[in-house]
Amino acid sequence: xxxxxxxxxxxxxxxxxxxxxxxxxxxxxxxxxxxxxxxxxxxxxxxxxxxxxxxxxxxxxxxxxxxxxxxxxxxxxxxxxxxxxxxxxxxxxxxxxxxxxxxxxxxxxxxxxxxxxxxxxxxxxxxxxxxxxxxxxxxxxxxxxxxxxxxxxxxxxxxxxxxxxxxxxxxxxxxxxxxxxxxxxxxxxxxxxxxxxxxxxxxxxxxxxx
Length: 210
Description:
Elements: E1 2-6, E2 22-27, H1 30-39, E3 44-47, H2 50-57, E4 63-66, H3 75-83, H4 93-104, E5 108-114, E6 125-127, E7 130-134, H5 155-162, H6 176-181, H7 186-196
Parallel strand pairs: 1-2, 1-4, 2-3, 4-5
Antiparallel strand pairs: 5-7, 6-7
């Protein structure tokens, strides 16, 4: 299956997908893209604008996963806004991609983001603390995930929780804990990929809260 993995980060969602798929990953930060490529040497890694890449190449793929940047939609951004510092609009690229994929993409897709501080403009499915917009149903994932994103959690604990060893990437000057925080839990990524491959009609009008 041809898969497009947008805003791939270090590849948390992709970690358990195996090597039987033809995967193209897009990441803006070249240092993070290098880490992804080291972990997944068989994937094609594009350093560039994932939002624009989707627009230009969406029709080449059978399954698309997109995880647009989430900070402006998060509850932390709400706190910054009400305090009057670091004021930021929600980044509407999220909804641009949701609407674009819904109307024009013929394969299966999922767009992932954090639980927002506002009522979502397009109703998502909510699974394991994430919002997902998709054209297929994602069953609840009940297996307990070993994830801790609190500020007091050490890098070692985070690496063990998500089964990623990034200590060896000494050339990366950013916050390695943030890299892990932004990585989707690998088990959840596999769960969603497996659901995307099941038969049945696409889910176009369902109640995700039913």
